Amino acid sequence: MNRRTMDPLAARVYFYHARFYELSNRLAEIRPIQLAAHRTATLRHDVETQATLLNLLLRNYFYHNLYDQADKLLSKSTFPEKAGNNQAARYAYYLGRIKALQLDYTAAHTLLAQAIRKAPQNDITAGFQQTVHKFFIVVQLLMGDIPERSLFRQPVLRKALLPYLAITQAVRIGDLATFQSSLGQFDATFKKDKTYSLILRLRHNVIKTGIRMISLSYSKISLRDICLKLHLDSEEDAEFIVAKAIRDGVIDASLDHLQGFMKKRLSSTYQFLSESS
After folding, report:
1. Which CATH class is domain 220-276?
2. Count of H helices and E strands in the chain?
3. Most buried one in 35, 76, 190, 246, CB count within 10 A?
4. How far apart are CA 185 and CA 166, in angstroms?
């Protein structure tokens, strides 16, 4: 049996070896073996074994929430270009998750989209498709975009993405109470999916959308009413959020600190027409 035949066979042996230890909750024990085997496969240019072991190591680190170690491994390793689509999809997924944690949402979005595109579309890979789409949706929301509703209707994704549809709807309408309610309702699911910390970052996006919608609906509104509409803890919170939204260019308004209200700025064209009439 030559090396070309042995390479994919060895890759599968390492995969099932890791799977056995994962099911036994003993993944940490085999990390040194995987690291040594990955170095050997890299030196020997055993493409499939090298790609498989790199992904298994990343899975090992992610399983134990060792994201810094995963990032270091990525910085010192090269994914073989000739590896199959299955491994390429998994690599893009892990790299996309790292980029999301590092706040590089554009790169994360590109990589997760690549993982979705490269993964085979069949019942066997349904679990992987669901996992990638969960992160893809959250990253898309963090970028300020709203996922297409048709995505949530796909048969293979519909049930798995229900909690993420609830979060998406809250972000879309800028309703902090709905967001907090959905976060509480699906708390265990998000923690199990390991999307919880990313979803927490969406609170700012929800508030920003809420402020934008309020500014479009009211020419003048008190901080107290903003506080009530956004379900904030205090008028001081509302004042801080409005001030930041104005500073960031999210809304075109002014803030009266003394009287405690936000007032929409009229466009110069509107002001000219008003003065001329």
Report:
1. mainly alpha
2. 15, 3
3. 190
4. 10
pTM listed for this prediction: 0.86
Q: Which two tokens stand for residue 75?
A: 């910085």
> Taking the domains of the chain in order of start, what are their residue ranges?
1-79, 84-217, 220-276
What single string gives the DSSP state of each residue in 40-65? HHHHHT-HHHHHHHHHHHHHHHHHTT
Q: What is the pLDDT along the chain (277 residues), one digit of tens a residue?
A: 556 678 889 999 999 999 999 999 999 999 999 999 999 999 999 999 999 999 999 999 999 999 999 999 999 999 998 989 999 999 999 999 999 999 999 999 999 999 999 988 877 789 999 999 999 999 999 998 999 999 999 999 999 999 999 999 999 998 888 999 999 999 999 999 999 999 999 998 998 888 888 888 888 888 888 888 888 888 888 888 888 888 888 888 888 888 888 888 765 444 444 444 4
Q: Is the dihedral of CA 46, 49, 52, 55 positive or negative?
A: negative
